[in-house]
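Customer escalation, tier 2.

The customer says the design service returned an amino acid string that "doesn't look like it belongs to this structure." They asked us to rerun it and document both sides in this ticket. The original structure tokens are below, unchanged.
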């Protein structure tokens, strides 16, 4: 008995083989990024310093994903599938803010939300982030509502709305993304870290003012 090959099946198999080979040729590793503290640790840190509780911090849902998000226009977002956060962004922001405040206030008494009931906290810092990404003009932007409260009775001591912009990454992604081996979001994440550093300084200044009042 002779075998007859279906030309349609042969063509489909050839196309699938080519697609598989193309996929192997374009497979690239995912690049991971983290925010970093931008304040240096002072020469002396006090174990009896101000007790600071950091959190909770909330993020917009569109930022709650592994991929780094950028704004293409006022109403359009883009996500970088190969450039992702090396963990949960909310957790990264919380820990960097805590590190910055510890360094700025020279205190070892910093706790992350949720902390144990008996942990002595003098001031609690909470924050609702509304924007934290690279804007359409290439600058990075951090906008947030933040408060300082008395954790013992929940009294709100200060409330602020702050916006920070850094132009250090302007044009960074667009100019580097075609360069072989480049990490196009290095400059973006560094600028975002500086934005968070500026917010940290304002929070630390507010804590010092409250303590001195």
């Amino acid at each position: 008995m002779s075998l007859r090959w279906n030309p349609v099946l042969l063509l489909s198999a050839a196309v699938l083989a080519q697609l598989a080979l193309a996929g192997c040729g374009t497979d690239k590793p995912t690049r991971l990024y983290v925010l970093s503290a931008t304040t240096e640790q002072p020469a002396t840190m006090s174990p009896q310093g101000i007790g600071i509780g950091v959190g909770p911090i909330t993020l917009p849902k569109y930022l709650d994903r592994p991929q780094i998000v950028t704004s293409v226009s006022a109403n359009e977002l883009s996500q970088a599938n190969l450039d992702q956060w090396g963990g949960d962004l909310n957790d990264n922001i919380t820990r960097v803010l805590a590190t910055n405040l510890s360094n700025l206030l020279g205190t070892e008494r910093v706790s992350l939300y949720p902390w144990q009931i008996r942990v002595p906290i003098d001031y609690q810092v909470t924050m609702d982030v509304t924007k934290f990404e690279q804007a359409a003009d290439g600058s990075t932007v951090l906008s947030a509502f933040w408060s300082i409260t008395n954790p013992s009775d929940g009294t709100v001591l200060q409330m602020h709305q702050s916006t920070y912009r850094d132009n250090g990454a302007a044009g960074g992604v667009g100019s580097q993304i075609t360069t072989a081996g480049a990490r196009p979001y290095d400059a973006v994440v560094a600028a975002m870290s500086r934005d968070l550093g500026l917010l940290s300084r304002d929070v630390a200044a507010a804590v010092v003012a409250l303590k001195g009042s």
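Tier 2 assessment: The sequence is consistent with the input. Strands lie at 31-33, 52-58, 67-71, 77-85, 110-112, 123-134, 140-150, 155-166. The radius of gyration is 24 Å. Sent an explanation to the customer and offered a walkthrough call.
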